[in-house]
TrEMBL record:
E.C. designation(s): 5.6.2.4
Domain UvrD-like helicase ATP-binding: 37-348
MF-aspect GO terms: 3'-5' DNA helicase activity; ATP binding; DNA binding; hydrolase activity
Species of origin: Magnusiomyces paraingens
Keyword Nucleotide-binding among record annotations: yes
Positions annotated to bind ATP: G58, G59, P60, G61, V62, G63, K64, T65
The organism's place on the tree of life at top rank: Eukaryota
Reactions performed catalytically: Couples ATP hydrolysis with the unwinding of duplex DNA by translocating in the 3'-5' direction; ATP + H2O = ADP + phosphate + H(+)
Pfam hit, one: UvrD_C
Name by which UniProt lists this protein: DNA 3'-5' helicase
One example of a Gene Ontology biological process annotation: recombinational repair
Length: 681
């Protein structure tokens, strides 16, 4: 028996074992009519004493989210104001599902469906920072860094910190001897998470530095706290992180983890800001980080009224806490209740057994297959693109073959894998002509016309935002070097926009063609016109679109029209109203950019007949008839299997698991497996 054999997946039978503090199944004599359609276990969870913390657990498809929402409805009906209830989840899709369930439940009691409390952790924190950020000296006019923005900041920090040069001057990397860390002056104790960065100077990878930042802040620590303790042991990382923090402060930028950290700081110093919170509900609690745990604990401390739901097998966030649900209900509260659901359980015992067999590298036991998929369905993949190409070809052939016979459509398929593998999948799908959409539709925001509109809004919000000016100049095929070292008549220009304005006004001595001068003049005119006071966000966008001619092509017209529709949507206006901020048009731009950065503005078209591409984390709470998932072996075996569990649990009927040959070469029981693609029902 190898190290993988330890039981990881709870099956239906193990979920049915009720703990000593479980919710009693003896229901009141009269069960409210609004929840009579639910099963007995769900009703018991909803009607459990509200004064005690409650955990609702179970596998996928058992109704955890629905039970959590109905419990929130019962709290509101009992007299608690919706404004005094906080309902948190991790993704906008989960939050929308919760809001839908809550609004539907309230409609049965003729309560107005204007529930603002169901939201993501990020959106909740943005609202808190708008309300109370001033207490810690934070301006509400802040930027929220997307993951790509954060990576750009890290790249710039690596360059500006001159970290390799400084390390060489300090005596590092002078005598690189293999397998001898002491000769590299890097005798750091223990198997540190960061030690591999010091084997050679080239290992200072921006992606890895980004993960270091996330790891630190997810644990509810700030960069300055970490640097104060670890700078002597990790000088290279400390220098880069200090530069990164300096850059963020200079540009009034917060990364995603900062949102939670700053809110925790506010609540810690001014606990009265959450004194009105009466009940806290958390969905997907298994993926709570240390910082989010601190936030939820602070909110629940007011009266101990907290309900969490989750599946402990689905811990897929790389920096989530160990046993977060247990900590939430155990560490803070001496008494708590547990409700275990299993009726409607999608992940059946045979599939759980298969996953354990994969963990043990034993594929000899195969479940019965009663699918519409013809054999053979096993293919040997040697690289990610080959795997993605085979998946694209397979989906296309099945849709064409069963179209009209089994009503099989592209929308019935989903491919869930890592962000890096999704790039190969997109390329393969485009090559094979398979229509697809990315969950959250991040591709919409990366289109040239939309990206130009967003960067222009950022410059309008803050003329000092040089990075957005650089992007706009590049989109207009202008060389940024023309703006460096310019000679000006009179005033000194420090920012790129002020230099562009000087060129447009004829105050700069620079050799540019007439066409390029006209482009710069048009750029400056658009910014100045849109920066005038009293112009609404919608009118500002229309002026940007017209000024830059973003709607001249059919694709640009379609994209910009969709962007304007999003601005006018009831949902966005509802989100705007939930952020307590005045109606100044410039502030509307700020709110829009912040909501867009945290993924709050959804551009998904659920009527599209397209294959859905997503990561396991973003797909939480969603389900499709047929799901492709890829098992990627990592050093953290439990995390790898949890991600596989999460992807399989998104399948309503058929789950297809792909394994590349690298998986078998990395395991202790290497063998020549010719058919590592496993299809289960």
């Amino acid at each position: 028996m190898n190290s993988f054999k330890a039981p990881l997946f709870k099956t239906q039978s193990s979920f049915s074992k009720i703990s000593s503090n479980s919710v009693p199944r003896v229901l009141p004599a009269i069960v409210p009519e609004s929840i009579q359609y639910l099963n007995r276990a769900q009703q018991a969870a909803i009607l459990a004493p509200s004064e005690l913390p409650l955990e609702i657990s179970g596998g996928p498809g058992v109704g955890k989210t629905k039970s959590l929402a109905e419990r929130a409805v019962q709290s509101i009906v009992s007299g608690i104001s919706p404004k005094d209830i906080v309902v948190l989840s991790h993704t906008p899709l989960e939050a929308n599902s919760l809001a839908h369930h809550i609004d539907h439940g309230l409609s049965k009691f003729n309560v107005q469906s204007n529930f603002f409390g169901s939201t993501t952790f990020r959106f909740f924190c943005v609202r808190m920072l708008h309300l109370f950020g001033y207490k810690i000296g934070l301006s509400s006019n802040f930027f929220v860094l997307s993951e790509q923005d954060k990576l750009n900041f890290v790249n710039e920090s690596l360059a500006d910190s001159r970290v390799k040069t400084c390390l060489r001057n300090m005596g590092y990397f002078k005598k690189p001897v293999k397998n001898n860390i002491k000769d590299l002056h890097l005798d750091f104790a223990g198997n540190s998470y960061f030690n591999k960065l010091y084997k050679n100077g080239d290992d200072l990878d921006p992606l890895y530095i980004s993960l270091v930042i996330e790891n630190i802040k997810s644990g509810n620590s700030s960069i300055s706290q970490w640097v104060a303790i670890n700078s002597d042991h990790f000088p290279a990382i400390a220098r880069v992180l200090v530069e990164y923090e300096s850059r963020c402060k200079k540009t009034k930028s917060l990364d995603m983890n900062d949102l939670v950290l700053y809110v925790n700081e506010i609540i810690d110093k001014y606990p009265d800001v959450v004194k009105d919170v009466q009940s806290v509900f958390v969905d997907g609690a298994e993926n709570i980080t240390g910082a989010e745990y601190q936030l939820v604990s602070s909110l629940a401390k007011q009266n101990g009224n907290i309900t969490v739901s989750g599946d402990q097998n689905k811990i897929i966030h790389p920096f989530s806490m160990a046993s977060p649900i247990k900590n939430l209900l155990g560490a803070e509260h001496s008494k708590s209740l547990s409700s275990v659901l299993w009726t409607g359980y999608r992940l059946t015992k045979p599939i759980a057994k298969l996953l354990e067999n994969i963990a043990d590298n034993d594929l000899t036991i195969k479940p019965r297959s009663r699918t519409i998929l013809p054999g053979p369905y096993a293919v040997d993949f040697t690289d990610p693109f080959q795997k993605s190409s085979a998946v694209a070809s397979f989906i296309k052939s099945q849709v064409e073959k069963f179209s009209g016979k089994a009503s099989l459509e592209y929308r019935d398929f989903s491919v869930l894998e890592s962000q890096s593998d999704l790039a190969y999948t997109q390329e393969a799908f485009e090559k094979h002509g398979v229509p697809y959409k990315i969950l959250g539709n991040s591709s919409f925001w990366s289109q040239k016309e939309i990206a130009m509109a967003l960067h222009t809004l950022r410059v309008i919000q803050s003329p000092d935002e040089d990075r957005s000016v650089v992007q706009l100049l590049r989109y207009m095929d202008l060389n940024v070097d023309h703006f460096l070292g310019l000679k000006f008549d009179g005033s000194k220009c420090l920012t790129l926009f002020s230099k562009a304005a000087a060129i447009a006004d004829g105050k700069a001595i620079v050799q540019l063609s007439k066409k390029k001068r006209e482009i710069i003049s048009c750029f400056v005119e658009v910014i100045r016109k849109c920066s005038e006071g009293g112009i609404s966000l919608e009118n500002t966008l229309n002026q940007i679109i017209t000024g830059f001619g973003l709607d001249k092509t059919p694709e640009g017209k379609k994209s910009t029209d969709k962007l304007v529709q999003l601005i006018k949507s009831d949902k966005l206006q509802k989100d705007f109203n939930s952020i307590h901020y005045d109606s100044n048009p410039t502030h509307e731009i700020t709110k829009f950019l912040q909501l867009q950065a945290i993924g709050q503005i959804s551009v998904d078209d659920y009527d599209d007949n397209k294959v859905t591409l997503s990561t396991p984390y973003d797909a939480q709470g969603q389900a499709w008839p047929i799901v492709f998932s890829h098992f990627e072996y990592k050093n953290n075996v439990k995390q790898s299997l949890s991600q596989l569990y999460s992807t399989v649990s998104c399948s309503k009927a058929i789950s297809i698991i792909t394994l590349t040959s690298t998986f078998f070469t990395n395991t202790s029981k290497s063998r020549n497996i010719k058919k590592p693609l496993v299809c289960v029902t």
